[in-house]
Amino acid sequence: MLELGIKEIREQILAKKITSEQITAAYIEEIKKSKLNAVIEIFADALDRAKEMDKKIAAGFTGKLAGVPIIIKDNILVKGKKASAGSKMLENYVAEYTSTVAQKMLDAGAVLFARANMDEFAMGSGTETSYYGKTFNPFDSTRSPGGSSGGSASSVGGNLCAGAIGTDTGGSIRQPASYCGAVGMKPTYGRVSRYGVIAFASSLDQVGPITKTVEDNAILLEVLSGEDANDETCDKVLVPDYTEFLNKDIRGMKVGVVRSVEKMLSGLDSEPYYNQMKEFLKNNGAEIVPIEIENMELALPVYYIIAPAEAASNLARYDGVKYSYRSKEATNLEEIYKKSRSEGFGKEVKRRIMLGNYVLSSGYFDAYYNKARALQAKLRDDMLAAFNSCDVILMPTTKGEAFKIGEKANPIDAYKEDMFTVGANITGVPAISVPFAMGKNNLPVGMQFIAPHYEEGRLYRVADFVEKHKEGK
Amino acid sequence: MEYDVVIGLEVHAELKTNTKCFCSCKNESGVEPNTNCCPVCVGLPGALPVLNKKAVEQTIRAGLALGFDINRMAVFERKNYFYPDLAKAYQISQLVKPICVRGYLQVGNKKLPINRIHLEEDAGKLVHSNDGSTLVDYNRGGVPLIELVTEALEEPHIESADEAIAFLEKLRQVYIYAGVADCIIEKGQMRADVNVSLKPKGSKTYGTKVEMKNIMGFKAVHRAIEYEIARQKDILDDGGVIEQETRKWDDDKGISFTLRTKENSEDYRYFPDPDLLAVNISDKEIDEIRKTMPPLPQELKAKYMGEYGLSEYDADVLLQFKNVSDYFNACVEQYNQPKTVCNWITTEIMARIKTETGAGPILISKENLVWLMKNVDDKKINRLNAKDVLSAVWGTEKSAENEAKARNLIIDIDTNALDEIVNKVISNNAGVIAQFKAEQDPKILNFLVGQVMKETRGKANAGDVMAKIKELTK
Amino acid sequence: MITIKDINHLENLSKLEFSDEERQKFLSEFENIVAFASQITGAKTEDKSFIKAVDMNNLRADEPKPSLSQDEVISNAPVKKKGCFSVPRIME
């Protein structure tokens, strides 16, 4: 039963084969037994909510997530519940309001029953920077689940929930999904509201689903998507029924492959799987179209300028005055600021705040921040131009299988985890990671598809096809 | 040595809107602390700003009132610094693309150039309490604020404390008339930062400027400028060098002291706010605002003096307070005798509403005042009685007409009855009459008129009575 | 070249404080990170950045909506007094 996904659980609940309470209780039991440390907190009222949903369902409610137990990342606010973004800084923070995404899921009948571990303020690629301990990979407990949405992906891969919500600023949904054998979607920037989602880098953050199947992913994204009067950057673009893109072939689909990306990939563990994917696509009637996006390799340094700059400003509000951790040692205002922030933030967060303030500070602003913004504009133009000759672009999601915990102690090594994923964030386009192969260590390897803005449907079409027809299926 | 004084002003004014700049909390003061607050203006995790259209309109309106060009695309930036009154530890403001660029304000015979007006959010309020704590109230946090920056490094510029105050007074008047801000100084709704530099008389090179921040009230601004001019003069006369710095004015002690020097000046790390979109402003929208612009003081002054024939002095008195000129305009609309209306307002009304710091509300309806003016002009009520009626209805719901009738003040005495009374007074005062006939003393005439008025209980017209007495004593 | 003085300045801007030992270690790491970011400085770009805009007409209407209650606003405050957030008295 625990292996079931969103669609099947909903169907079984509506068919009265199980109740929401039963399945929620089963997941709670599983989490309690689990050694993955994927979950920071099971909400105290989880079963009450499930019972309430059972009643509503008995009364005829059939919402898209009716009774389905879903885990949310620890940076998504639900009124009355803690949200700490994996940080000591917000250890005791209880949300005063509900995020738009949580509200949409609740309205669709979801049981949001736990919050998932994450890299502190989503800064990390291994769920190793959380104040609440490391999360482990469900396929190999010596390995990282990836990050920053490692708790969400590990929960999905480890069957601790029907599906989960993550956020993706530079790859934080797709990379852990790839490592945990899950489907992870980073929607178009502007597809999903950010209101009530603890910000890392505002111009790059997007909420998205991490699920067991492509179909589940399509169902969940449809619930999450749509305009929001509380978020100016969330666009007024019609939300399609994403399941309509499923169960189609890929004949005639033009799949772009980027030369510079293939150069970056050369010699990496994921290279053979990427090549297999090209063969697979070709064999199934897709056309492989070589393209080039100039400076694609610079997307990563661009990201490590823009994201820290915004983060330095976004995280300045955690000052020990209003709701965040206040140092017991502080006796005056300056000490409240400096001691609370020094004690409340972990190393990686401090590193990025410092970097962000460096690239924004007078004398460096033009050389770093403005230059990065200019490069971003160019990458965006080139990305859009590339889609003139293809429908989707294929890239690996990661360099290979999940890495060993502790292996990425050097910050730059950790940053390079995002080398194939940041491009979509920097240019705002949607991207999906779909499980494709098992690597040499018998760990999952995902492949990534990228589409033009608001063409998530194309991604579901190709990912669904891969899921259903890949080798071993 | 003789110096040229160069003064620059940065003026903040809170905009008149229903809601705050980036959230839908009420823009209102005087309520319990932290009750007009929401996730956005308290800077809660995950909260996002959503720009208020009215705040943009009001900024454009302020710009148009001062002859500004309006940028067709405006961008909001974050100004980053830590202070407890700043919930997010950054202020949303505008640096590179403000809404209004390049305007001017005519003060006396100077057309003073203004660099920009931009829209930003106000900070919260800090209350320093005696128990060793500072309390933070975010009700004011996020209230829309416009910042105007004068162009000090061009000719002409402000050269004295008096001129600076004249600029501020005039600016305040424009904002109030344009309806963009109430500018109540005591409530901190208009605040000025000042910078002052001196250069040798006639020199083309500008001196080092010293800034003074957050001076409360125009009088303090005046004092702070005079102090700073004198301070810099002393230093320069002694062969010293002016340090670029920010000083704080202590109005109680009448001195300023160093707050920040150039070396430790703040680095605000401005960058475009990624939570907000840039704003496209079209010609059509600007025209709409232009069309609905209320008449500004300079236009009204021209009308009062030209069309209505009022003196400049009277026009200025009427225009000093917007509620007064609004009232004047409304009365003239009902009773097209601008000079009469002006007289009544500048004497009777002003005397009742003028306070030390401004003007209170006018507590008589225009209908009542118009009725009184009309009936005095029509000789239906004696002027002195009309003033009594005004006093009686002031601050009440009473109608002037009913009040005059209740007091039996309407002049309705007929000619025969009046003749009878005049004759009676003449025959009762034979001695006085004889003296009047001999001396033609106006004092005696006034005495006689007074006697008649007393008999009629003020219901006769004094002019008529005087004519009658003169006629009968020829 | 990034110096200890630069790190001190960034600590001030960031309202963070490192111990001497931390600062020394941070410096060497930070140099690598800045060098990594500096890869972009040579790239050819035009002087423009992507910015999305909204027509003024579509901005939020100026209509009040309910605020949070005072209790909710200060519910997470580490120290609160008289309906306000409280910090040690600021010397002006």
Sequence-ordered SSE layout with sheet pairings:
The complex is a heterotrimer of chains A (473), B (474) and C (92).
Chain A (H helix, E strand, L loop, with lengths): L5 H9 L5 H14 L5 E4 L3 H13 L10 E5 L26 H8 L3 E6 L33 H8 L5 E6 L5 H6 L3 E4 L19 E6 L2 H11 L29 E5 H7 L5 H13 L3 E5 L7 H16 L18 H12 L2 H14 L5 H21 L5 E5 L14 H5 L6 H6 L3 E8 L5 E7 L5 H14 L4
Parallel strand pairs in A: 2-3, 2-4, 7-8, 7-9
Antiparallel strand pairs in A: 1-3, 4-6, 5-6, 5-10, 9-11, 10-11
Helix pairs in contact in A: 2-3, 7-16, 10-12, 10-13
Chain B lengths: L2 E12 L38 H13 L3 E2 L2 E2 L2 E4 L9 E4 L6 E8 L2 E12 L3 E4 L4 E5 L6 E7 L10 H18 L11 E11 L9 E6 L2 H20 L7 E6 L4 E7 L9 E2 L5 E3 L2 H9 L5 H10 L5 H9 L1 H13 L3 H16 L12 H12 L5 H11 L6 H7 L8 H14 L1 H10 L2 H15 L5 H11 L2
Parallel strand pairs in B: 12-13
Antiparallel strand pairs in B: 1-10, 1-11, 2-6, 3-16, 4-5, 4-15, 6-7, 7-10, 8-9, 11-12, 13-14
Chain C lengths: L3 H11 L5 H18 L15 E3 L14 H4 L6 E2 L2 E5 L4
Antiparallel strand pairs in C: 2-3
What descriptive keywords fit this protein?
heterotrimer; A: 473 residues; alpha/beta; Amidase signature (AS) enzymes; globular; C: 92 residues; alpha+beta; Histone, subunit A; two-stranded antiparallel sheet; 36% helix; flat
What does this structure look like?
The complex is a heterotrimer of chains A (473), B (474) and C (92). Chain A is an alpha/beta fold and 473 residues long. Chain A is built from 16 helices and 11 strands. Chain A is globular and about 70 Å long. Chain B is α+β, with helices and mostly antiparallel strands. Chain B has 3 domains: 285 residues, no CATH class; 68 residues, DNA polymerase, domain 1 (Orthogonal Bundle), CATH 1.10.150; 58 residues, Orthogonal Bundle (Arc Repressor Mutant, subunit A). In chain B, the strands form 4 sheets. Chain B has a 9-stranded mixed beta sheet with strand order 2-6-7-10-1-11-12-13-14. In chain B, strands 5-4-15 form a 3-stranded antiparallel beta sheet, with no helix packed on it. In chain B, strands 3-16 form a two-stranded antiparallel ribbon. In chain B, helix 7 packs antiparallel against helix 8, helix 9 runs antiparallel to helix 10 and helix 14 crosses helix 15. Strand 9 of chain B pairs antiparallel with strand 3 of chain C.
